[in-house]
Amino acid sequence: MGTLMKVERRLLAVAPWLLAISAVVRTWVLVTGFGNESIDLYVYWSLAPHVLDGDLYAVTSPHSPPDFPLPFTYPPFGALVFLPMTWLFWGAAQWSFRVLSVLCLYWMVRVTLRLVAGDAWSKLWNQRAILWTAVLLWMMPVFHTFEFGQINLVLAALVLAAMVARDSRVAGAGLGLTAGVKLVPAISGLYFLATRRWAAAAWSVVAFAVSVGLGFFVDFGQAKRYWFELLFDPSRVGPLATAHNQSLRGALSRTLGYDVGMTWPWLIAAVVSVALCCFALRSAVRAGDALIGVVAVQFLGLLLSPISWDHHWVWVAPLLIWLVHARLVPWARTTLLALWVPVMFLDVIAFQLDRQTTIWTISRPGWLSLVGWAYPALALLTLVVVGLAVKAATPRSAPRSPDLALAS
User: Fold this and answer.
1) How far is it, in rounded angstroms, from Cα 84 to Cα 72?
2) I need a surface site. Which of 127, 138, 168, 279 has the fewest CB within 10 A?
3) Is this structure's pTM higher than 0.85?
4) Do the beta carbons of residue 178 and residue 204 sit within 8 Å?
C-alpha cells in the first residue's frame, strides 16, 4: 500500500501534464481515424431541424454507412434540445461538442470523488480529479463516445447532477428532462423511490410529461408516430445482436442465435437483474452510499434496455473510481478491478467485430457469443458484489448521508 501511495503522489504531481498528453493523443487518434466523422453527432446536427419541418422520422443522415441508413431515434424533445447546435457550422458544432464532453467527463469525475471523499475533501482530491480524467479518456466506452460523437457523457453528467442534488425540484426536473431527451435515464427514478425522495420522483414525472407535451405541441403527428409506433421498434435503432449492443437482449440473442425479443429467456434474465439491483440498492441506501446506489440503478437500465451500445456504459467510470477510493472489503475491490479494468481498457468490442462477417449477423461461434457477455455479465456480478461488500464495509449503525452536496 505504501508503494502505491508513492506512485500516486508522483503521478498527481504531473497530473495536468498527463491530462494534456492524454487529450492530445486521443484527439490525434480521432482526427486520423474513424472518429473524425462523428457519425452519430452528424445525425443530431443534420436531422434536428426536421422537427420543425414535420418529417423528423422520415429522413436519414446523409453521412450514413452504406448498409445502415441512420435515422433520428430520440423523442421530438431531443431534436428540440439539439436545435441550438445546428446554428453552428459543422466543424464548430463538432469541436464544441467534444470540448463539452471532456468537461462533462471531468465534472463527473469530480462529483464522484466528492461523493467518495465526503468531509475529507481537500486539494489532493482536486489533483485526483485531473488524474482520473486523464486515465478515463482511455476507457473504451468513453473513447467510443467521442469516436461516434455520442451524447453519453453529457447525459450521464446531467443524470448524476440530478440524482445527488439536494433540492427536490432541481433533482426531479433535471432527471425528467434528461429522460425526455433519451428514455433510458428514466430508470433513475427508482433511486428516488428507494431513498424515499417522493417530491423528486413527482417532479421528474412532471418534467418528463412537459418534455413529451412540447413534442406534441411542435408537431402532433410526428410525436404521435414516435410514442405509439417507433418507440416499440428497437430494430430501427440498429442491429440488436451486434457486438456493440451490450444489453441483456443483445447478449442472449447472440448466445441463442436469434432475436429473443421479450420472450421467456429475456424475462428470466430481467427478473434476475431487477432482483440483484434491488439487493445492491438496498445495501447502498442502508450504508448511505449515494454513488454506488446511483451506479446500480444505471446498470439496471443498461441491462434492461433493448439496445445498450457499448459507449452507453460510461457509468463504469464512476464505478472504477468508487472501487479504488471507497471504503471497501479487499476481496470486492480486487475482484471487480481485476475483471473490469481489462474489459474497459482493451477493445473487446472491436475484437468481436473483427471476427464476424457483418453487424447484422446474429448467430456466431459459442466462444465468441461468450465474449459478447462481457459488459452485462460483469454488471450482474457487480450488483452481487456491491450488495455483499457495501453491507460488510459500512455498519448499519453509522450510515453516511445518501444526499451529499455537489462538488463546488
Assistant:
1) 16
2) 138
3) yes
4) no
